[in-house]
Every structure is written in C-alpha cells, then in structure tokens.
Amino acid sequence: MPVYDPKSLKAEEFINDEEIRETLAYAEANKNNTALIDQLLEKARPKKKDKGYTCAGLTHREASVLLACEIPEKIEEMYRIAEEIKLAFYGNRIVLFAPLYLSNYCVNGCLYCPYHLKNKHIPRKKLTQEEVRAEVIALQDLGHKRLAIEAGEDPVNNPIEYILDCIRTIYSVHHKNGDIRRVNVNIAATTVENYRKLKEAGIGTYILFQETYHKDSYLHLHPTGPKHDYAYHTEAMDRAMEGGIDDVGLGVLFGLELYKYEFAGLLMHAEHLEAVHGVGPHTISVPRLKRADDIDPDDFDNGISDEIFEKIIACIRLAVPYTGMIISTRESEEVRSRALRLGISQVSGGSRTSVGGYAGYDENERPHDTEQFDVSDQRSLDEVVRWLMENGHIPSFCTACYREGRTGDRFMSLCKSGQILNCCHPNALMTLSEYLEDYASPQTKEVGYRLVEDELKRIPNEKVRRIAEENIDAIKSSNRRDFRF
Ligand code: SF4
Ligand code: SF4
After folding, report:
1. SS3 state at 102
2. Is residue 383 within 8 Å of residue 132, measured between CB atoms?
3. What is the Cα gyration radius of the chain?
4. Cβ(108) to ligand 1 under 6 A?
5. Residue 467 CB contacts under 8 Å (≥ 6 apart), including other chains
C-alpha cells in the first residue's frame, strides 16, 4: 500500500488515499472541538510584522477541521479572517482575465465535459492563426491584457506546435493601444520537453485542473483517452516545474466527488509542490460542475450548495494565504460577489467559453454551438469592471510580475514579505486608467477616475505616488501605455 510522503514524486504517495481518509476522520472527530478550532483560527489570522503582515497558513489536516466545523459563530469568524487575509495580502484589488478557446477537438472521454470524444453532435472547431488574430483583436477591443488559453487534448489536431503558434500569434498582435501581456495556458498534461517549449514561448501560469483527487472516481470519470492515466495527470505539475515553468495553477472540479475529500487532496498537492520545489501553487481555481451540451450536473451526486462553496473558498484562503484564487463566470454575480470578500483575487469577465466566441459578435451576442459550459455571469467586461468598483474593489489589468521576472520563489518571497503590495496597488491604478481611457463606457469612466483619484492618495510612499500620478497623466494625455512597478 502506498505510504504518504509529501516529498515523493509518485502521485499515490503525495496524494495518499489513506492520509486523506484519516484526515477526514480527524476532522469529523474534532468538528465541535472549540478549543482546537479557536487555536486554528488564531494560527491562521494575519499577524502584523514590520511594515506588513505575515500569515502561518494551515496544514491540510488543520484546514479540514475548519471545513468540517458547523458552529455558526466559528464559521463567521473564519469568514472574517479570510477577509482579513485577503485585505492584508491583496488589498481590494481584483485582477481580470478572459479565457480564449482555441480548439474543442479532444480524444478524451471525460464524462463531465461536452468536448469528450463520443459527443458526435457538438460541432468541432479549431481556430486558424488568422482566426486567433481576430479573437485577440476582439479581446483587446474589450480591454483584456491577460488571457487563459484552452484547448482539448488531441495530438493530431492540437499538437504542441499548434499551441506554440497560437501563443506567438497572441503576443504578436498590437491593435490600437491594446496588447496581450500574459498568456496563461490550460492544456492537457504533457511531457517535460513540451513544458520547456511552453516556458520558452513565454507563458505565464500553467493551469491544470486535477478534476478529482479520488483515484477510483478519476478512473471512472475518465474512462478513455490519455487522461485516463491518473498518475501521469497528477504528476503533471512536477514535470511542468522540471521543464522550467515557475508558476502553476491547481484546481478541482467541485461536484464530481465528495468536497471534503477534494479539499484535503488539493491542499496536499499544494504542500507537495512546496515540499519538492520550494514554491506552492501560484493560483488555485474553484470551478463547480455546470450544465452544458450533453452534460446534466444532476447526473452527478456531489453537487455543493452556495454556502458550502463559500466555506471552501474561505478555508482555502486560510490554508494557503499567498496563493491567488480564481473564480470564473461559471458562477453568478451574487456568488462571485460574496466570494470576492472571502479571498478571491482574480476573476474572468465578459467571457466566451466557445471556440471563436469573441470576433464578429457584439457584447450581448454569445454563440452557444461549441460552448464548454453555461456561463452564469453574462455581463460585459465594462459592466463587471463598474460592478467591482461600485462594490469597493479596484479592477486591475496588471501583468507586471511575470514581465519583470518576478515568478516562482522570487514572487513568493516578495509576496510573503508583503513588499509586493507596493507594486500591486499603483500597477492596478495605472492599468485601470489604461482601461478607462481606451475602452470604458462614459459611466464606467466616471466611476473609475473617481476611484483612481481616491486610491492615489492612499499610496503611502511619496515617490511611488508621484510616479504613478505622472504615468496616469501620460495615459490620459497621450498613447503612452504599459507603465509598471
Ligand atoms: S475536460 Fe478537457 S480533456 Fe476532458 S473532454 Fe473536456 S476538453 Fe477534453
Ligand atoms: S504587481 Fe504582480 S502580484 Fe501584483 S497584481 Fe501585478 S502581477 Fe499581480
């Protein structure tokens, strides 16, 4: 029987079924242990240190106790601490991005995804480089600077050379004042050699959702295709890091398996990356199973309520305070609104989840033929930006760290020391000003510049404030763009 070892490179040792079961039993036994729960909440709380804050985080066992706890006032306290952590390390900024679907050809048999091989009625589509250009121009015209590219696994239709060509095309398009400054990549598990090629192509984060950490369920849900190989999929992040990719993004698809099992597995994966590579995941995504062509979420038994979903987000925030958290347009405005307070730091906006969903369509028109899932939040990017601002957040289009070489452990040490805040805040204001000047509606522009003026006053360092003000003046009065700290 595999033995739990976070430093092992074998999937079944670092995501160890027995360890997860023991964790869940421990959590269940202690879910009303108020002394322990208070101790864990105290451990997770951000502490003042020098000019900033420091946070201890929680182990998968500790965080699982909090997730199991059903005492209302303790849950309220968790939510308060999650918000404190969010404000201590991310302030009120929210980074925006959009997905770009390149191809829905796929040879896998995933039971929860409409792109599975046996779905014969969904149209199959793969963008040509000309179409990629058109999509990127449409995305730039919306105001996006950061993309997550998505493609099914298909060695014939979507080989790594195709993905690399697309990345080159995306970075090469400069339309009006627009450019895509960071391309994150969400493609199937691949080889060290291919990860190296992605690194050389200048990708930001490599994102791969585990879907489920429960091996038996994984094998059942992925009956055919290369993705059936649980170990190859689960060990992908180690190969990505071996290939030189510093920033990796984890996630599970909540609804496939019991959420407490997934939660413990997800945190064990994060602990494994830290133990082996010295740096945890850059981001964690929290997708929930959604309706789609050929897919009915009611066919799966493990759907979670909005309340549980919020508790999961808060507990992840407490456990891994330095990891960015992403929520997509799978979730509604209401759910996203609450999740933002509990630790989410990145959201998508104005998203299309179909292949070729941006070019040729206006903001309210959305093609459904090749959609991967139903989008709950169907607002335009302009509406999302204004909504964020009206709810006390600063929408940010910042991509500075990756472009300044602040990735992997370099990024994490700046993040842990709290110094990154000195960059994030002015960068958010400058990139928001670019958005307001180039793309926003008059109403959003008005709300936005009021916010920028107020927030500029909050930059504590006088020199940084002066430079940010000068740069924003330049953005307003000229076509100079892409200022960054
Ligand atoms: S989840 Fe990914 S690998 Fe599975 S069918 Fe969909 S596109 Fe293919
Ligand atoms: S400065 Fe770095 S961490 Fe901060 S928002 Fe920009 S890219 Fe993200």
Report:
1. strand
2. no
3. 22
4. yes
5. 426, 485
Exposed (0-12), middle (13-18) or buried (19+): which is 252, by Cβ within 10 Å? buried
> pTM score, two decimals?
0.96
Q: What is the DSSP letter of 297?
A: G
As a dihedral over the C-alpha atoms of residue 325, residue 375, residue 220, residue 124, rounded to 10 degrees, the angle is: -120
The bound ligand whose nearest atom lies closest to the alpha carbon of 371 is 1
The torsion angles phi and psi of 189, rounded to 5 degrees, stand at -50, 135
One-letter amino acid of 340? L
Is 396's C-beta closer than 6 angstroms to any atom of ligand 1? no
Size (the chain), residues: 485
Residues with Cβ within 6 A of ligand 2?
Answer: 95, 396, 398-401, 420, 423-424, 427
Nearest ligand atom owner, CA of 182 = 2
Six token digits for residue 471 = 């740069």
**Ordered DSSP codes for 131-199:** HHHHHHHHHHHHT--EEEEEE---TTTS-HHHHHHHHHHHHH---TT----EEEEE-----HHHHHHHH
**316: which 2 tokens?**
């992840």
Pocket test for ligand 1, best of 103, 104, 105, 110 (most atoms within 8 A of CB): 110
Neighbours of 84 (CB within 10 A): 19
Residue with token string 């309220």: 76
Contact 138, 359 (CB under 8 A): yes
Instruction: For residue 462, give every residue at least 6 positions away whose Cβ sits within 8 Å of its Cβ, in sequence order, or none.
Output: none
Tell me the residue type at 249: G
What is the full per-residue pLDDT of the chain (485 aa) written as tens digits? 899 999 999 999 999 999 999 999 999 999 999 999 999 999 999 998 877 889 999 999 999 999 999 999 999 999 999 999 999 988 999 999 999 999 999 999 999 999 999 999 999 999 999 999 999 999 999 999 999 999 999 999 999 999 999 999 999 999 999 999 999 999 999 999 999 999 999 999 999 999 999 999 999 999 999 999 999 999 999 999 999 999 999 999 999 999 999 999 999 999 999 999 999 999 999 999 988 888 888 888 889 999 999 999 999 999 999 999 999 999 999 999 999 999 999 999 999 999 999 998 877 778 888 889 878 899 999 999 999 999 999 999 999 998 999 988 888 888 888 788 889 999 999 999 999 999 999 999 999 999 999 999 999 999 999 999 999 999 999 999 999 99
User: Is there a contact between 238 and 276 (Cβ–Cβ < 8 Å)?
Assistant: yes
